[in-house]
Specification:
Low-confidence stretches: none
Radius of gyration: 17 Å
Oligomer: single chain
Number of strands: 12
CATH topology: Deoxyribonuclease I, Chain A
Shape: globular
Number of domains: 1
Strand content: 35-45%
Structural class: alpha+beta
Mean pLDDT: 91
CATH class: Alpha Beta
Number of helices: 7
């Protein structure tokens, strides 16, 4: 059994690498694996009792000397037991440079292949939705073909359906991205279902549980249902947006087990 967490740490804006790392550990201390988006390079998080085993570099910020990255941290005892292998970076399609670089990072822990993604989207990419409304399908298809992961976690910058919070956000868009936005924002989820993945994000009966301060659920955990059993299985949200603030995203944790 493995407890996997995912959290977007908002470019370490709430305290720097060591302070944010300590807060991540306090909130997610039940996890065996912590997948982080918007870690900052150079430097980066330092999570007590965890080792960064894999890292992928994505979008450049400012003058290009600083980059966002995805990281996978694993408990040190698992690293010492040599339970981690196969770490690799997977650059994701950007529609011929239309969008900023995105990437995934993949590794195997206790026999479970885990991919940590940060898909295209967000305030700046959303305005270019009409240029490649299927970009998230492209990115996940590339990842699945390249790595065939058992678990896919991370920031999808979207959810399977539109909600009132999303609709009010899109109202201010120019006409072209507004028309394409539904496919762009919801992209990737239907594709993963066709590949045999099931989502493990906590959901109410009518809509996703909110995991960001913007009223949306961009954070997801998917697992390959044919390989991973659902019982024993639990998923829960950990608040990272309340004091002391860690991020503009909340974290998700899931427990998975192998047949």
């Amino acid at each position: 059994m493995l407890v996997v967490a995912t959290v977007n740490v908002e470019q370490l804006r709430h305290g720097g690498p060591e302070r944010v790392g300590r807060r991540v550990h306090v909130r997610l201390n039940h996890a065996h694996v912590i997948c982080v988006q918007e870690n900052i390079l150079p430097g980066g998080l330092e999570i007590p009792h965890f080792t960064e085993v894999a890292r992928s570099v994505g979008e450049a910020l400012g003058d290009g000397t600083v980059h966002l990255c995805n990281s996978i941290f694993v408990r040190k005892r698992l690293c010492k037991a040599k339970a981690v292998w196969g770490a690799r970076e997977v650059p994701l399609p950007t529609a011929d440079g239309t969008f900023v670089p995105r990437s995934a990072v993949v590794c195997t822990v206790n026999g479970i292949c885990i991919a940590n993604v940060h898909l295209t989207g967000g305030r700046y990419d959303d305005l270019k939705a009409h240029l490649a409304p299927d970009i998230k399908d492209q990115q996940l298809r590339y990842l699945v073909d390249a790595c065939d992961p058992d678990v896919i976690v991370g920031d999808f910058n979207g959810q399977p359906e539109l909600t009132s919070a999303v609709a009010s956000y899109v109202d201010s868009f120019p006409e072209d991205p507004k028309l394409a936005f539904s496919a762009f924002f919801t992209g990737g989820h239907a594709y993963l279902r066709t590949c045999g993945y099931r989502h493990a994000a906590p959901r109410s009966r009518r809509q996703p549980v909110v995991t960001s301060v913007f009223g949306t659920c961009p954070d997801w955990i998917y697992f390959r249902s044919c390989k991973l059993v659902q019982r024993p299985f639990f998923v829960y949200k950990v608040s990272c947006t309340t004091a002391p603030v860690l991020s503009d995203h909340d974290a998700l944790l899931a427990c998975v087990a192998v047949h």
